[in-house]
């Protein structure tokens, strides 16, 4: 599957999961060699593909129930997005994705202090707050920066 196909696949989960989803264009902008991707099918099964090169071999992607998109830097990995389709929530899908992400070692992420489900998810996965940016987002909410080593 080429990059545009993968971006459309992820955008379909974005549209279902977020009030302000990332567009195909925005997702494409993050799909380079540093991208690390985790996909669960609708049964919650992790697909064995994580990098763009590996996605090249995926010819017929199954319907996706949840995904994460992360960026691998030299000494840490940054979680950019994690989303579960509403009909599959509270069934451990995000927990499974976070377990996969943990394989990259030191992880950083940013989250709105108004996003209680995400905050609870990250805390349950062992992340701790390392800084806070006041009124960072457009809705006036704070940005919480969290880390797991
Ligand atoms: C946040 C989100 C990814 C959680 O996905 P999920 O598959 O429902 O989460 P899980 O079932 O794996 O839950 C794992 C833990 O997260 C916490 N959690 C998840 N949803 C929660 C909610 N609605 N309220 C409180 N805690 C919640 C709980 O601690 C939960 O453990 P538990 O079920 O044993 O109590 C999902 O609600 C979502 O896609 N939200 C919209 C997108 C988003 O905001 N992404 C994060 C910012 S990029």
Task: Please tell me about this protein's structure.
The protein has helices at residues 3-17, 24-30, 52-55, 93-101, 116-124, and strands at 35-41, 64-72, 77-84, 107-112, 128-133, 143-148. The chain is an alpha+beta fold and 149 residues long. The radius of gyration is 15 Å and the shape is globular. The site of coenzyme A has 21 residues, from β3, α4 and α5.
CA-based gyration radius: 15 Å
- Read across the widest sheet, the strand sequence of neighbours is 1-2-3-4-6-5
| Mean pLDDT level | 94
Number of helices: 5
Rounded to the nearest angstrom, the distance between the terminal CA atoms is 33 Å
Strand coverage percent: 25-35%
Low-pLDDT residue spans: none
Count of folded domains: 2
Q: CATH topology of the largest domain, which one?
A: Aminopeptidase
Using the 3D structure, state the CATH architecture of the largest domain. Answer: 3-Layer(aba) Sandwich
- Tell me the overall shape: globular
Largest sheet: 6 strands, mixed
Structural class by secondary-structure content: alpha+beta
User: Which small-molecule species are bound to the chains here?
Assistant: coenzyme A
Task: Write the element-wise H/E pattern from the N-terminal end onward.
Answer: HHEHEEHEHEE
The number of strands is 6
Helix content: 25-40%
CATH class category of the largest domain: Alpha Beta
Quaternary organization: single chain
CATH superfamily of the largest domain: Gcn5-related N-acetyltransferase (GNAT)
């Amino acid at each position: 599957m080429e990059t545009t196909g993968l971006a459309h696949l992820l955008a379909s989960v974005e549209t279902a999961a977020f009030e302000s989803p990332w567009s195909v264009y925005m997702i494409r902008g993050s799909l380079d060699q540093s991208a690390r991707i985790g996909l669960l099918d609708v049964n919650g099964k992790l697909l064995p593909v994580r990098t763009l090169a590996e996605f090249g071999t995926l010819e017929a992607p199954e319907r996706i129930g949840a995904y994460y998109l992360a960026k691998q830097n030299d000494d840490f990995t940054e979680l950019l997005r994690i989303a579960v389709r509403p009909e599959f929530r509270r069934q451990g899908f995000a927990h499974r994705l976070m377990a996969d992400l943990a394989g990259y070692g030191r992880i950083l992420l940013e989250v709105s202090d108004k996003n209680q489900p995400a905050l609870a998810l990250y805390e349950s996965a062992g992340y701790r707050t390392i800084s806070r940016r006041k009124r960072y987002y457009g809705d006036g909410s704070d940005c919480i920066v969290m880390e797991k080593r």
